[in-house]
């Protein structure tokens, strides 16, 4: 590598070997579960264990290994013991039966480098009072039925802006970057809910910068990192994940602080508090920083917002992009869902949120997209807080536990024609994504379920239905659906490697 010389690499190898020998000697004296009770797994190499078997797409590698070693398997990455579950039954035991014991977090090196695990809804231990406070705040003031109803007009407005942008591109017969366009929509919905302002623009390079920043955070957190396997190597930052994480988070926090400062200045000029209907999420959080017994600090707010921005923008826009990509590859399915939307919406001129419940085939398209392209293919890493038995095998304390929802969604023992995009498989069934049906859990389940699920299930169908109602789509430069690249890029979230570029063709006047 460029950052260290060959001699330094040799010294580093000797250091690792020495430390492993010391650790092995110490650990051999401890009582450990009998090997026969541990989950099966592939043979391990000295020192590195199974690191060489991960690859650039771990969810693929783990799925392939599970075909040999079964629905629960044990791997070792350096000093990190990991158990991977790849079946609905295993997912049920991890996410429900043993939810409390397996609700710990295994923070990555990138997370630790900004101490995000100390003030994060995603990474704090669920047993902590701070985690319960953060969860309560998001549940009551962000995604409660009352708040979702209060922000319905906002979502409609932002989707309308998306359609207006598409309309202008249609007039010019220009291809649109679907990933970026839907990201701007999700970004502006999120930023308005949080602090009543747009952060993105469809004709601005600034929005592309925000997307790159959010993507950078997701990649830094989820990418393989030597320091996750050998913690004492963290300061070397061999993969550059610490630097990328710090730079990206610093950039977002600088933006957050401009909004904080403006709100605090406005508050100091007005003695009368805002009307409840005009208060956004940051108004609520800032109130909790006041007084002698303040429950939050601005540091807490910054880290809460980091969670909400990264989880609420990239994942929603990516799901819409995957859905549209699959529909373009399957013209009969595209025609079927558009026919349903046209029939239900008629000549109203636009899709409303209240229409979504009348579109069962659209709902099936969204579920099928979640099945094949879950936003977080391995969910967020969990940690065993104590020894626990899963599927008849012992999972020792402090083991990292991963649920491969990507592999479960493509398991031929669970799904017929698992690699085909067939929304019909969900028609007439009550399978949902809310953590009840463990063959389809893209948002997780239990106490660690993604808190943004209610908002995502409003935004994704609304954006997708609106795009399909108002436009047909064609590939630029004479390309055809067979040319569409469906390669994935793995971070903690799953994105298309090459974003979808298509030309919108207006079907009707846009209100």
TrEMBL record:
The keyword Iron applies. Keywords: Heme, Iron, Metal-binding, Monooxygenase, Oxidoreductase. The keyword Iron applies. Its cofactor is heme. It holds the Pfam family p450. PROSITE patterns: CYTOCHROME_P450 (PS00086). GO terms for molecular function: heme binding; iron ion binding; monooxygenase activity; oxidoreductase activity, acting on paired donors, with incorporation or reduction of molecular oxygen. Heme binds at residue 450. Belongs to the cytochrome P450 family. This is Cytochrome P450.
């Amino acid at each position: 590598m460029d950052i260290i010389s060959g001699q330094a690499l040799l010294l580093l190898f000797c250091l690792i070997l020495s430390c492993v020998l010391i650790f092995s000697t110490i650990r051999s004296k401890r009582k450990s579960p009998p090997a026969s009770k541990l989950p099966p797994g592939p043979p391990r190499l000295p020192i590195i264990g199974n690191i060489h078997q991960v690859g650039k797409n771990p969810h693929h590698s783990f799925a392939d290994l599970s075909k040999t070693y079964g629905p629960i398997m044990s791997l070792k990455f350096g000093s990190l013991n990991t158990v991977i579950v790849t079946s609905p039954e295993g997912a049920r035991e991890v996410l429900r039966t043993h939810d409390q014991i397996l609700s710990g977090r295994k923070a990555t090196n990138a997370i630790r480098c900004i101490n995000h695990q100390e003030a994060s809804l995603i990474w704090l231990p669920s047993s902590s009072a701070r985690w319960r406070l953060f969860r309560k705040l998001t549940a009551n003031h962000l995604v409660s039925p009352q708040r979702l109803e209060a922000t319905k007009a906002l979502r409609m407005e932002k989707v309308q802006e998306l359609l207006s942008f598409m309309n202008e591109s249609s007039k010019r017969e220009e291809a649109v970057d679907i990933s970026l366009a839907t990201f701007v929509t999700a970004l502006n919905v999120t930023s308005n809910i949080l602090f009543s302002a747009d952060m993105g623009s469809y004709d601005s390079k600034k929005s592309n910068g925000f997307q790159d920043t959010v993507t950078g955070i997701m990649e830094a957190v989820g990418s393989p990192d030597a320091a996750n396997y050998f913690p004492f190597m963290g300061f070397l930052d061999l993969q550059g994940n610490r630097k990328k994480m710090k730079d990206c988070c610093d950039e977002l926090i600088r933006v957050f602080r401009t909004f904080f400062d403006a709100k605090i200045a406005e508050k100091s000029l007005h003695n009368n508090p805002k009307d409840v209907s005009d208060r956004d999420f940051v108004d609520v959080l800032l109130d909790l920083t006041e007084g002698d017994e303040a429950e939050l600090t601005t540091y807490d707010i910054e880290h809460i917002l980091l969670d909400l921005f990264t989880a609420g923008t990239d994942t929603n826009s990516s799901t819409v992009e995957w859905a549209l990509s699959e529909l373009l590859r399957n013209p009969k399915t595209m025609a079927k869902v558009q026919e349903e939307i046209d029939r239900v919406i008629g000549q109203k001129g636009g899709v409303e949120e209240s229409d979504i419940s009348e579109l069962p085939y659209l709902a099936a398209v969204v579920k099928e997209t979640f099945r094949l392209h879950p936003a977080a293919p391995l969910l967020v890493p969990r940690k065993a807080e104590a020894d626990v038995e899963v599927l008849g095998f012992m999972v020792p304390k402090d083991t990292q536990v991963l649920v491969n929802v990507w592999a479960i969604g493509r398991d031929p023992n669970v799904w017929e024609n698992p690699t085909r995009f067939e929304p019909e498989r969900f028609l007439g069934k009550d399978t949902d994504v809310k953590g009840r049906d463990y063959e389809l859990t893209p948002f997780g389940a239990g106490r660690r379920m993604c808190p943004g699920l209610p908002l995502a299930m409003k935004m994704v169908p609304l954006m997708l239905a609106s795009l399909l109602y108002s436009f047909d789509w064609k590939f630029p430069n004479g390309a055809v659906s067979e040319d569409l690249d469906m390669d994935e890029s793995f971070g903690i979230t799953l994105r298309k490697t090459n974003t979808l570029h298509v030309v919108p063709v207006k079907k009707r006047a846009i209100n």
